[in-house]
Amino acid sequence: MINNIYSKKITELREKADMSKKGLADRVNTDEETVTQWENGESVPSAESFYKMAKLFNVSMDVFFETEQPMKEKDLVNGMESLNQLYRIGRGPSSSHTMGPEKACVIFKENNPDADCFKAVLYGSLAKTGKGHCTDSVIENTLSPVPCEVQFDYLKTDIEHPNTMDLFAYKNGEQIDFIRVFSVGGGRIEFEGSSSAKEPIVYKLSTFKDIKDYCKEKKYRLWQYVHEVEGEYIWEYLAEVWKTMKNAIETGIEDEGTLPGGLDVQKKAKYLYNMEHIGESAETRENREVCSYAFAVSEQNASGGRIVTAPTCGASGVLPSVLYYMQLKHGFTDRQILQALATGGLIGNLIKTNASISGAECGCQAEIGTACAMASAALGELFGLKRGKIEYAAEIAIEHHLGLTCDPICGLVQIPCIERNAVAAMRAINAVNLASFLSDTRKISLDSVITTMKKTGMDIHAAYRETSEGGLATLEI
Ligand code: SF4
């Protein structure tokens, strides 16, 4: 039996309309047996059938995606953190595998100034892809000069989060401290049994609908809502973000050689940037330039360079590449770019809060899909689109990444990650163009696609959630 949430809803709507199964089947061009299978959860209607049923019962498509179960307490969302917790400036190659553990080790070291030895035990995705992401060397370097033994526990499965790490501190052979840490994505960490690592909630609203309604009432563009909540400070912070993003691009398109890690992957940003086709069309040129910027940032990330999580290290090339290209092409001011970063950040924050931005938790849809949605929304802001169209652009971007798996070869943030950033950048431009052409007649809201992304992520097999146990990660290179 397929575990889906549509079955009871179809029965409920059909019975409410006083319609037999045969009657429904006739109206949506199928047979009674198929309708019975839908209602028994034995098969799922096609998108077209959902559409026909939505029209027939005069309901939104969203109705079929709404969960019947009340959300668990831990799923209830009450506000969002500052954008400074989404855009984090630091070194790659992985926000959850390097930035998060690094932050935890800094805190643990400060709390244990007398320790003469440390031990770190990595579980789940941190264990399975920690070597490739350089988690062990980041931990050792951060706790240095105190020695640290790093152990990889590949077998433990009863862990609360796929990126779990235990830290032990010793003095004269006696354990003096212990802490369990969860690296929850985007460089953010949480300590077991403690809320001390949680960042303050600054945004009271945490759905796009609520934010959209509020902005409509106040006649705000989305970045003005960010300004109202975060204050003048956010522009200074975003200016630093933009400066770091530009540096990563400009360093990356000059860089050459091979990426570290042993896969012998060549850096290609410089080649892409310089290799103009003979008689190159404007479209091909745009494609090549945007991709070269995305490669530049992603290659800097893979080399341990300084980048900005947008929303993660692995997906850090998408947003800067499209903004950099559009600034050069259209001459947008830095102020306009910062407003676009605020708008894109708001979308990333909604996804981080209501779903996930962690590949280990929800697959690559949560990283690259979110990056694409942020980039689409940011472009919508640059082009002056209305709130509804910005929502549409972000919704298109995330929707068409649903189900995207995370299977980096050798656990390195290189294949498929680098190309994936470039493809998502192009897709963001397509999404905003599509949204700007189409009138606002869509059937699915951004909020419902975000919820769907989370559910999809929970259904993705663990082998495809940053464990390097499935898909491309199993290829011999
Ligand atoms: S496949 Fe996607 S989610 Fe996985 S490491 Fe690469 S960019 Fe991140």
Describe the protein's architecture and organization.
- The protein contains 19 helices and nine strands.
- The two termini are 38 Å apart.
- The protein has a five-stranded mixed beta sheet.
- The chain folds into three domains: 7-69, lambda repressor-like DNA-binding domains (434 Repressor (Amino-terminal Domain)), CATH 1.10.260.40; 93-191, 60s Ribosomal Protein L30, Chain: A (2-Layer Sandwich); 203-474, no CATH class.
- A hairpin with a 2-residue loop joins strand 5 (163-171) and strand 6 (174-185).
- Helix 12 (282-302) packs across helix 18 (417-437).
- With 477 residues, the protein is of the alpha+beta class.
- Helices cover 49% and strands 10% of the residues.
- The protein has helices at 7-16, 21-27, 32-39, 47-57, 95-111, 124-129, 135-143, 208-218, 222-230, 233-252, 269-274, 282-302, 318-330, 334-354, 359-362, 368-382, 387-399, 417-437, 446-459, and strands spanning 80-81, 89-91, 117-123, 148-153, 163-171, 174-185, 188-191, 201-203, 306-308.
- Iron/sulfur cluster binds at residues 314-315, 359, 364, 367-368, 406, 408, 413, 416-417, 420, 466.
